[in-house]
Amino acid sequence: MLVEGRHADGAIVDHGDFAVRTGGGIRAANTSEQATAAVLEAQAAAARHDQRLHVVGVTWTDDAAAEAALLLESLTEAGFDNVVPIRLVEAAETLARGVAPVVGYDTAAVCLLQGESTTVVMVDGSEDEAKTAVKQLDGGADRLTAWLTAMFDRSTWQPGGVVVVGPDHDLDALSWQLEKALPVPVFTQSGTPLALARGAALASAQNTDFTDAPLVESIDAVTPAPAPARPRGYAGALTMLVAGAVTLVASVSLAIGPRLLPDKPAGPVKQAVHKTAPAPVAKAPTPPPAKVPTSAPHAAPQPEPTQEPTVAAAPAEPQTVVSAEQPVNVPAAEPVPAPPPPAAPPPEPDPHPLLTKLLNRLHGVPDDAAPAPAPPPPNPGAPAP
């Protein structure tokens, strides 16, 4: 397992597993060679990420002690001077201290199933420094269920949650039993070898703090220039490898990951809204004709002497558009009948009053009707027909 971060608390860069057959002899030598090759591949993977191995932690079960001894020797011969052996119990305790806060409880019981053997780590993180207690059980899943049930019935210390790590074929039935028997949430995850590998990674990083300063100095002295070119996600971080199997932390992060990945709505809808906007633009051309007459009068005041004649021409257009409003302006034409009064003056300058009287007598009009000069205005109109 290749883990990012000087403290092995980063992302899983790479991991792999292979079967190991115990028994010593040639099998142990083959296992050692295969594990050493895996470590060399991990070192190459770290180099591809522009990183350097910080520490190599190795943990094992009791029946693989011979293989572990050969592996430690093989890694040293391959040039790795940062190999740290980690006891299985220490790896389990370190893993439990890291898992408890992940599931959201200060107190938790982390159970690691390995065949007929189970390691139970009780973690109490209510204080500044987490405390752990380890219990080894024999008897498989049934023994674990009975022991946890008795702990909740008799013990004053009770965890807020239970985490069970084991093989896939045992977890389904075991989780159903524990959920019925225990009053707290139960979390199950497959991959015990990987869980122990991650615990060994965390423990080995904590046990090699004294090597940090020299390593940083050597890196700074050898490659000062490439440092700025590193991606920000890898800046100042080194990777570490744990020989063993796969990891539980990756599985736990997958279980919690969906809560941290909310769905986001797609944005094309807004683009569609912008496309429909041109429709109202078509309505804009209709108002301009109404605005044209208004703009003309505003332009008229600038050249006052010249615009007055143009204003007279402009009314011709509104007369065609609005016929109802023109009758209102018709009274303005009433000054036209004013010419009839000027028609009266012609009789006044009459220089021949005698002829007028003579004509009146010829027509049988008495002299007393002198005020009849009013009819003369119609008479001049009579000869016209």
UniProtKB/TrEMBL annotation:
This is DUF7159 domain-containing protein. Residues 334-348, 372-385 have a biased composition (Pro residues). Pfam families: DUF7159. The lineage of its organism: Bacteria, Bacillati, Actinomycetota, Actinomycetes, Mycobacteriales. InterPro entries: DUF7159. Residues 274-284, 324-333 have a biased composition (Low complexity). Residues 266-385 are annotated as: Disordered. It comes from Mycobacterium branderi. Residues 2-213 form the DUF7159 domain.
